[in-house]
Amino acid sequence: MSKQVRIEIRVTVIAHVGEDITDERAPERDHDAWESFSMVRVAHVGPSVQARDVAAGHLTGMMAGAVSGIAERLRHDLREKGF
């Protein structure tokens, strides 16, 4: 039986907009936008490849492919609230 590697990424994006924003901590009020994502990929581990190399390569690809979609959803949420 061949080995498989399963990579699961969970990302939560929270955005606050306003004059009460500082570098120190999030404001003590509800966020202005929130998105949560879960991505899963199962990949085959070849006989001459280390699972760690397969996992790292797929993680990089998954994140790169998801960034534009995550950014657009956050942009949409903020636009709907007038920001």
Percent strand = 25-35%
Question: What is the strand arrangement across the widest sheet?
Answer: 1-2
- The tally of structural domains comes to 1
Low-confidence stretches: none
Protein structure class: alpha+beta
Summarize the main sheet: 2 strands, antiparallel
The rounded Rg comes to 18 Å
Global morphology: elongated
Our measurement of the CA-to-CA distance between the termini, rounded to an integer number of angstroms, reads: 53 Å
- Overall mean confidence score, pLDDT: 93
Q: What is the H/E string?
A: EEH
Number of helices: 1
Number of strands: 2
Helix content: 25-40%
Describe this structure in words.
The protein has 83 residues and is of the alpha+beta class. It has one domain. Helices cover 36% and strands 31% of the residues. The protein is built from 1 helix and 2 strands. The chain has one helix spanning 51-80; strands at 3-15, 33-45. A two-stranded antiparallel sheet has the order 1-2. The radius of gyration is 18 Å and the shape is elongated.
In brief, what are we looking at here?
The protein has one helix at residues 51-80, and strands at residues 3-15, 33-45. With 83 residues, it is an alpha+beta fold.
Jot down its keywords:
alpha+beta; 36% helix; 2 strands; two-stranded antiparallel ribbon; 1 helix; single chain
Question: Could you give the topology of this structure?
Answer:
Blueprint: E1 3-15, E2 33-45, H1 51-80
Antiparallel strand pairs: 1-2
